[in-house]
Design a protein that fits this description.
It is built from three helices and eight strands, in the order E-H-E-E-H-E-H-E-E-E-E. It has one domain: 3-Layer(aba) Sandwich (Cytidine Deaminase, domain 2). A seven-stranded mixed β-barrel has the order 1-3-2-4-5-6-7. With about 170 residues, it is of the alpha/beta class.
Length: about 170
Protein backbone atom coordinates (compact mmCIF):
# COMPACT_ATOMS: atom_id res chain seq x y z
CA UNK A 1 0.00 0.00 0.00
CA UNK A 2 1.32 3.44 -0.95
CA UNK A 3 1.06 5.56 2.22
CA UNK A 4 2.25 8.69 0.42
CA UNK A 5 -0.82 8.75 -1.78
CA UNK A 6 -3.92 9.86 0.19
CA UNK A 7 -6.19 7.88 -2.13
CA UNK A 8 -4.51 4.54 -1.29
CA UNK A 9 -3.96 4.80 2.45
CA UNK A 10 -6.50 3.71 5.06
CA UNK A 11 -8.25 6.78 6.42
CA UNK A 12 -10.45 5.80 9.32
CA UNK A 13 -9.96 9.04 11.23
CA UNK A 14 -10.48 12.73 10.60
CA UNK A 15 -8.32 15.03 12.74
CA UNK A 16 -10.26 18.28 12.95
CA UNK A 17 -9.31 21.47 14.82
CA UNK A 18 -12.07 22.63 17.18
CA UNK A 19 -12.11 26.01 15.43
CA UNK A 20 -12.84 24.38 12.04
CA UNK A 21 -15.47 22.10 13.61
CA UNK A 22 -17.18 25.08 15.25
CA UNK A 23 -16.97 27.11 12.02
CA UNK A 24 -18.61 24.48 9.82
CA UNK A 25 -21.38 23.98 12.41
CA UNK A 26 -21.94 27.76 12.59
CA UNK A 27 -22.09 27.87 8.80
CA UNK A 28 -24.77 25.15 8.90
CA UNK A 29 -26.87 27.19 11.34
CA UNK A 30 -26.48 30.39 9.30
CA UNK A 31 -27.56 28.67 6.08
CA UNK A 32 -30.65 27.05 7.65
CA UNK A 33 -33.20 26.19 6.25
CA UNK A 34 -30.92 25.63 3.25
CA UNK A 35 -27.88 23.39 3.05
CA UNK A 36 -24.46 24.92 3.50
CA UNK A 37 -21.30 23.55 1.93
CA UNK A 38 -17.57 23.96 2.06
CA UNK A 39 -14.17 22.39 1.60
CA UNK A 40 -11.81 20.89 4.17
CA UNK A 41 -8.12 21.60 3.55
CA UNK A 42 -5.26 19.71 5.14
CA UNK A 43 -2.79 16.85 4.81
CA UNK A 44 -2.99 13.09 4.56
CA UNK A 45 -1.49 11.43 7.62
CA UNK A 46 -1.16 7.75 8.49
CA UNK A 47 -4.65 6.54 9.30
CA UNK A 48 -6.51 9.61 8.14
CA UNK A 49 -6.62 13.27 7.27
CA UNK A 50 -5.40 16.16 9.38
CA UNK A 51 -7.56 19.17 8.53
CA UNK A 52 -6.05 22.64 8.82
CA UNK A 53 -9.15 24.62 7.97
CA UNK A 54 -12.70 24.62 6.70
CA UNK A 55 -13.34 26.96 3.77
CA UNK A 56 -16.89 28.14 3.17
CA UNK A 57 -18.33 27.82 -0.30
CA UNK A 58 -21.56 29.15 -1.75
CA UNK A 59 -24.34 26.65 -2.33
CA UNK A 60 -25.09 27.38 -5.98
CA UNK A 61 -28.26 25.24 -6.04
CA UNK A 62 -31.25 27.42 -6.78
CA UNK A 63 -33.76 24.65 -7.49
CA UNK A 64 -33.60 22.72 -4.18
CA UNK A 65 -31.08 24.35 -1.81
CA UNK A 66 -32.98 23.00 1.20
CA UNK A 67 -31.95 19.43 0.40
CA UNK A 68 -29.13 19.65 -2.17
CA UNK A 69 -25.86 21.48 -2.49
CA UNK A 70 -23.39 22.19 -5.24
CA UNK A 71 -20.12 24.10 -5.25
CA UNK A 72 -19.53 26.05 -8.46
CA UNK A 73 -16.59 24.56 -10.41
CA UNK A 74 -14.92 27.97 -10.69
CA UNK A 75 -15.11 28.46 -6.92
CA UNK A 76 -13.69 24.98 -6.30
CA UNK A 77 -10.80 25.67 -8.69
CA UNK A 78 -10.02 28.91 -6.80
CA UNK A 79 -10.03 27.00 -3.49
CA UNK A 80 -7.72 24.31 -4.92
CA UNK A 81 -5.28 26.92 -6.30
CA UNK A 82 -5.16 28.79 -2.98
CA UNK A 83 -4.70 25.53 -1.07
CA UNK A 84 -1.82 24.37 -3.29
CA UNK A 85 -0.05 27.69 -2.83
CA UNK A 86 -0.12 27.00 0.90
CA UNK A 87 0.96 23.38 0.55
CA UNK A 88 -2.47 21.99 1.45
CA UNK A 89 -4.69 19.38 -0.20
CA UNK A 90 -8.42 18.90 -0.35
CA UNK A 91 -9.05 16.58 2.59
CA UNK A 92 -12.78 16.58 2.07
CA UNK A 93 -16.02 18.47 1.95
CA UNK A 94 -18.74 19.43 4.40
CA UNK A 95 -22.42 20.18 4.10
CA UNK A 96 -25.51 20.31 6.26
CA UNK A 97 -28.78 18.41 6.41
CA UNK A 98 -31.57 20.76 7.54
CA UNK A 99 -33.96 18.82 9.79
CA UNK A 100 -32.47 15.52 8.59
CA UNK A 101 -29.95 13.14 10.21
CA UNK A 102 -26.19 13.64 9.86
CA UNK A 103 -25.96 10.63 7.58
CA UNK A 104 -25.24 10.48 3.87
CA UNK A 105 -28.11 10.19 1.44
CA UNK A 106 -28.29 8.32 -1.85
CA UNK A 107 -27.87 11.68 -3.60
CA UNK A 108 -24.81 12.48 -1.46
CA UNK A 109 -23.20 9.23 -2.62
CA UNK A 110 -24.17 9.73 -6.27
CA UNK A 111 -22.72 13.25 -6.28
CA UNK A 112 -19.53 12.42 -4.32
CA UNK A 113 -16.55 11.94 -6.63
CA UNK A 114 -13.44 12.63 -4.56
CA UNK A 115 -12.48 9.07 -3.62
CA UNK A 116 -10.21 9.03 -0.58
CA UNK A 117 -11.68 12.23 0.84
CA UNK A 118 -13.81 12.84 3.91
CA UNK A 119 -17.40 14.04 3.74
CA UNK A 120 -18.65 15.74 6.91
CA UNK A 121 -22.38 16.20 7.45
CA UNK A 122 -24.04 18.29 10.17
CA UNK A 123 -27.66 17.79 11.10
CA UNK A 124 -29.39 21.11 11.74
CA UNK A 125 -32.52 20.62 13.83
CA UNK A 126 -34.87 23.60 13.89
CA UNK A 127 -31.96 25.94 13.10
CA UNK A 128 -29.50 24.51 15.64
CA UNK A 129 -26.50 22.32 14.78
CA UNK A 130 -27.04 18.87 16.26
CA UNK A 131 -24.99 15.80 15.26
CA UNK A 132 -21.91 16.09 13.06
CA UNK A 133 -20.58 12.91 11.44
CA UNK A 134 -17.81 12.07 8.97
CA UNK A 135 -17.67 9.52 6.18
CA UNK A 136 -14.79 8.44 3.98
CA UNK A 137 -15.50 7.92 0.29
CA UNK A 138 -13.78 4.63 -0.52
CA UNK A 139 -13.43 2.60 -3.69
CA UNK A 140 -11.51 2.75 -6.93
CA UNK A 141 -14.21 3.69 -9.44
CA UNK A 142 -17.60 5.37 -9.61
CA UNK A 143 -19.16 1.92 -9.75
CA UNK A 144 -17.68 0.61 -6.49
CA UNK A 145 -17.46 3.79 -4.42
CA UNK A 146 -19.02 3.71 -0.96
CA UNK A 147 -19.11 5.75 2.22
CA UNK A 148 -17.67 4.30 5.42
CA UNK A 149 -17.93 6.00 8.82
CA UNK A 150 -14.93 7.96 10.06
CA UNK A 151 -14.08 8.87 13.61
CA UNK A 152 -13.76 12.62 14.19
CA UNK A 153 -10.94 13.54 16.57
CA UNK A 154 -11.18 17.15 17.70
CA UNK A 155 -8.11 19.26 18.41
CA UNK A 156 -8.55 21.81 21.14
CA UNK A 157 -6.45 24.96 21.08
CA UNK A 158 -4.58 23.83 24.18
CA UNK A 159 -3.06 20.59 23.02
CA UNK A 160 -2.90 17.48 20.88
CA UNK A 161 -5.76 15.79 19.13
CA UNK A 162 -8.22 14.15 21.48
CA UNK A 163 -11.13 11.87 20.64
CA UNK A 164 -14.22 13.78 19.62
CA UNK A 165 -17.82 12.69 19.60
CA UNK A 166 -20.74 13.40 17.38
CA UNK A 167 -22.34 16.37 19.05
CA UNK A 168 -25.99 16.49 20.06
Amino acid sequence: MDTTNPQTMPQATLLLPRIAYDALRAHAEEAYPDECCGVLLGHAVPGGWRVNEAVRAANERTDTPSNRYSIAPAELVMIVIAARRRGLQIAGFYHSHPDQPAHWSRTDLEEAHWIGCSYVITEVAQGRAAATCAFLLEGTTEEDKQFTPQVIHLQDDSGPYAPGKASR
